[in-house]
Amino acid sequence: MFVAQNAFQGDLMGHVRALPQAWRQALADPATQDVLHGLDQFLADELAQGKQIFPLRPLRALLEVEPQDVQVVILGQDPYHGPNQAQGLAFSVPDACRIPPSLRNMFAELAREYQGDFVRQRNSLLRWARQGALLLNTSLSVEAHKPASHAKRGWEHVTDAILVHVLREPRPKVFLLWGSHAQSKEDLLRKNPPQGPLLVLKANHPSPLSALRPPRPFIGCGHFQKTNEWLREHGETGIDWLENKTPPAHRTPQPDAVADTPAAPQTPTPPDPAASAPSASPASPDPSGPQGTLW
Fold first, then answer.
1. Of 44, 53, 149, 214, most Cβ neighbours within 10 A?
2. Where in 46-144 does DSSP place strands (E)?
3. Which residue stretches of 241-294 are H helix?
4. How many other CB atoms are there within 10 angstroms of residue 25's CB atom?
5. 78 among known catalytic residues
6. DSSP state of 145
């Protein structure tokens, strides 16, 4: 019998209690606690009905980077809904998994931006998270094979609280808003002025359905280089997008049966994004301007 190693096992509030203190503070207000308890009950009811839920650790993005260390926020929609895909990090899958189309396009854009330096990339983006990238989905759980099945269940309130907490940190940071789900958070950014410098860059979602479409094609957006240029202008290190080695954890995470490379019958070699990059005209200008939107 096939067993998904990344299936959620229950006790969401236990996951909350295991977070670093700074993130627990982000979720401590009574309204957010009520939502979390409601989600805990919802997930428990779903499991009691025999439904399979991913990922194993819905709050993993918060285990890999502390709020004061966030340099970049990348917002996704909801976790991958196939077995052994979702890791709790937006857009990321274990190295043993077939590369998802959106992640393939992200690597294709990296290959376009760093033509002389690009190397084949691992599928797990844990290395980005540990350098200071918060890889957060707007919804943090999903039923197997049913995309967006846990949207509008309360996760949006939780992820709003997380983002507001990040905005209160004085460190300069870049928000990468790719697609309508991520861009729906713009109103939140306007209502919660950041404590430090903030750059917001927008583009279509990297999905093949939208990556080349106007008004802001993802392919050609130049966001990876723009992010680092702006961060370094503000005294930050930026993210080494091409580094394939994963930095050590800042803290000891909970044991994770799936880790980053779940058991699989075979480990396919990730396709070379440079070879499979969608054809595109020379880089299209970002309609939000060369520096994006500054708050």
1. 53
2. 53-54, 72-76, 133-137, 142-143
3. 273-276
4. 12
5. yes
6. T
Residue 83 and residue 265 in contact, taking contact as beta carbons nearer than 8 Å: no
Q: What is the mean pLDDT of each run of 10 residues along the chain (295 residues)?
A: 83 98 97 98 98 97 98 95 95 95 97 95 97 97 96 96 98 96 94 96 96 94 98 97 91 44 36 40 37 56
The confidence score (pLDDT) of residue 293 equals 62
The reported pTM is: 0.86
Domain assignments of the chain as residue spans, ordered by start: 12-294
| Other CB atoms within 10 A of residue 191 CB | 9
* C-alpha–C-alpha distance, residues 210 and 3, integer Å: 33
**3 state DSSP class of 275:** helix
Of the candidates 129, 126, 63, 133, the one whose C-alpha atom is nearest the C-alpha of residue 260 is 126
**Greatest extent of the chain over all pairs of C-alpha atoms, in Å:** 54
In angstroms, the CA 135 to CA 176 distance is 10
C-alpha closest to that of 54 among 124, 11, 5: 5
Cβ(180)–Cβ(205) under 8 Å? yes
Of the residues 78, 95, 260, 286, only one is catalytic, namely 78
136 contacts 70 by C-beta, under 8 angstroms: no
Q: Which of 291, 73, 273, 102 lies closest to 185 in space, CA to CA?
A: 73
The fold of the 12-294 domain, in CATH, is Uracil-DNA Glycosylase, subunit E (3.40.470)
